[in-house]
Amino acid sequence: MSEFTAQDYKKGQPRWCPGCGDHFFLASLQKAMAEIGVAPEDIAVISGIGCSSRLPHYMATYGMNTIHGRAAAIATGCKVSNKNLTVWQVSGDGDGLAIGGNHFIHANRRNIDLNMILLNNRIYGLTKGQYSPTSPRGFVSKSSPYGTVEDPFRPAELCFGARGHFFARCVASDAKGTVEVLKAAYAHKGASVTEVLQNCVIFNDGTHESVYTNEGRKKNAIYLEHGKPMIFGENNEFGLVQEGFGLKVVKIGENGVTEKDILVHDAHCEDNTLQLKLAMMEGPDFPIALGVIRDVAAPTYDEAVDAQIEEVKAKKPYHSFEELLETNDIWEVK
């Protein structure tokens, strides 16, 4: 049992709008850290710029509020140079996927051992309501008064396309689900991406309304667990089956369908075809997938760098700057 409590990771008074999803997530992150049991002095929380990026100010850990879009770059350097440090990277959908999109992709591709959190409220909140890379087509905002004419990024699609090995999704207002996902993200060695669906009460209120309440999640979400049948519904009356190359929602008990016909979730399958289909589901015909969708072991960048350095050092005749100097001709002046 962990010797820490959530209080051990708390600092200061959060300055977000009342009802903001950031409050919910911060509490869940602190609770998850307490259950994980890594000491505050062995943790760094790195963020960029934005409402969500204020989070390191409220953590009693090491932390850094960096510049816009560069959280993944700073977090990478932090982890590679401090391999025993647990690094959490916190970004918003604008900070992480617009100016920071390139860093997001390559941190996944390299599989750096970072816990990457993407707080997705589909809006720029700190700069007062411009549309973001995850805002839906037609979205009306201060920077798109007639509606956007763009299709949005889907974080799961980006993560999978970059050959990411861990992707999970939770809802900020679902404390239990968020804590479990964060613990799984920490346990994964490599780049873990957790998309957090959250509400912006000022500029994009209700954007995740279908799953933001317990009742909504019972109707409109499916909690995926490795090795468990993909069953959902208010009374677990629905399930997912494969139909051709796609998925289909069926009702258990109708047309001879039994629980044995329902697909079993495999988060550890290296082939991400089915996992991506699950991650991309959305209503009204399909539930939104929550929980750990993909969790596959793979070599990490930081461990590979350490191993490479040790391998090169073993082959060299010198192991320090002083020894390097002694490999050349030396003159002594008296």
Overview of this structure, please?
- The protein is an alpha/beta fold and 334 residues long.
- It has a domain at 6-212: Rossmann fold (3-Layer(aba) Sandwich).
- The protein has 10 helices and 11 strands.
- It has helices spanning 21-36, 71-81, 93-99, 101-110, 155-161, 175-187, 214-220, 273-279, 301-315, 321-325, and strands at residues 43-47, 62-65, 86-92, 115-120, 166-171, 192-197, 221-224, 231-232, 238-243, 246-251, 288-295.
- The protein has an 8-stranded mixed beta sheet with strand order 2-1-3-4-6-5-11-7, sandwiched between helices.
- Helix 6 links the parallel strand 5 and strand 6 (192-197).
- Helix 3 (93-99) packs across helix 4.
Helix count, per DSSP?
Answer: 10
Distance between the termini: 65 Å
Rg over C-alpha atoms, rounded to the nearest angstrom: 22 Å
Task: Name the strands of the widest sheet in spatial order.
Answer: 2-1-3-4-6-5-11-7
CATH class of the domain at 6-212: Alpha Beta
Percentage of β-strand residues: 15-25%
Provide the low-confidence segments as ranges.
none
Q: What is the general shape?
A: globular
Describe the sheet with the most strands.
Answer: 8 strands, mixed
CATH homologous superfamily title of the domain at 6-212? Thiamin diphosphate (ThDP)-binding fold, Pyr/PP domains
Q: Tell me the total number of β-strands.
A: 11
Give the helix/strand class.
alpha/beta
